[in-house]
Design brief:
Blueprint: H1 7-32, H2 38-59, H3 85-92, E1 99-104, E2 110-113, H4 114-119, E3 123-131, E4 135-145, H5 146-153, E5 161-169, E6 175-181, H6 182-185, E7 191-196, E8 199-200, E9 210-212, E10 225-231
Parallel strand pairs: 1-10
Antiparallel strand pairs: 1-2, 3-4, 4-7, 5-6, 5-10, 7-8, 7-9
Bound molecules: the ligand Nc1nc2c(c(=O)[nH]1)N[C@H]1C(S)=C(S)[C@@H](COP(=O)(O)O)O[C@H]1N2 and molybdenum atom.
The ligand Nc1nc2c(c(=O)[nH]1)N[C@H]1C(S)=C(S)[C@@H](COP(=O)(O)O)O[C@H]1N2 binds next to strand 5.
């Protein structure tokens, strides 16, 4: 993983690593003082290894592909054309009046136009999208690194999750939303993408802005993102499970 440059991001990652090592070291210390507990010590060591492997895998990059691997058309799924009046008006005007809001547990709540997001440093990545329904598709995404945006608004220490509020109601039911923990939010491949395969993100794939969290299953990757909210808990949202599909029985943790 790239060395995080934003101090808040670096502090978060360092703290979570230190907290984990402190717990594990404390455990090892205690065990090593007793000579009758060497078998338990071995177990402790195995636990340390497993924890380190888990942490390492949470920091690892998703595989990136070559341009020749890009699918001719990126499949669309779920909502592909939001019907609500507000969204349709924004789309009819080429999203010139669209604004992304970032609020909740941040120091400086802010809105961004599409042009403002496009003027920020961007990242481009070719990755494979995996949907639980049993299909995959490789596409090239360009967008703002979510961690850069979070640095601009200043995340408060109480924030534990980033919630993505979307413009659509899935099949006219409840508003679509999703959430990530801070480690996933600060991952270098986690983007708010406005470009697919070198052109503006099509409406079918989430125009004007959608989440890419490349180590997660497809349903985490909120399309039609209107608002990013930093929260301590998602108990008050939807049915309290952290996402539209989570509220209907899917796992909140959708790592792949
Ligand atoms: N707002 C919103 N985001 C969404 C969905 C949706 O219906 N609405 N469907 C999810 C699912 S299940 C998948 S697989 C991907 C599909 O993204 P795609 O249409 O670009 O293939 O978007 C996810 N994000
Ligand atoms: Mo999906």
């Amino acid at each position: 993983m790239n060395e995080p440059t934003d101090p808040r991001r670096r502090r978060f990652l360092t703290n979570s690593l230190l907290a984990t090592s402190a717990v594990l070291l404390a455990g090892c210390d205690r065990l090593s003082r007793s000579d009758t507990m060497s078998r338990l010590f071995d177990a402790g060591e195995a636990l340390t290894q497993r924890a380190q492997r888990l942490l390492a895998s949470r920091e690892s990059l998703a595989r990136e592909y070559a341009p020749k691997d890009i699918a001719p058309t990126f499949r669309a799924n779920g909502t592909t054309n939001p019907q609500n009046e507000a969204y349709r008006r924004l789309a009819a005007n080429g999203f010139r009046d669209w604004r992304l809001t970032i609020d909740g547990l941040v120091e400086r709540p802010q809105t961004f136009s599409l042009d403002e997001l496009k003027a920020m440093p961007s990242r481009t990545q070719i990755t494979r999208h995996d949907c639980v329904e049993g299909w995959s598709c490789i596409g090239q995404w360009t967008g703002v690194v979510l961690g850069d945006l979070l640095a601009q608004v200043g995340v408060r220490d109480e924030a534990r999750f980033v919630v993505f509020h979307c413009a659509d109601r899935y099949h006219g039911t409840d508003p679509y939303y999703e959430s990530l923990d801070m480690l996933e939010a600060y991952h270098p491949q986690t983007l708010l993408a406005y470009d697919l395969n070198g052109t503006d993100l099509p409406i079918a794939n989430g125009a004007p802005l959608r989440l890419r969290a490349e180590r997660q299953l497809g349903y985490k990757m909120a399309k039609y993102v209107m608002r990013v909210e930093l929260v301590e808990s998602f108990a008050h949202l939807g049915r309290g499970r952290g996402g539209y599909w989570e509220d209907r029985g899917y796992q909140w943790w959708a790592g792949i």
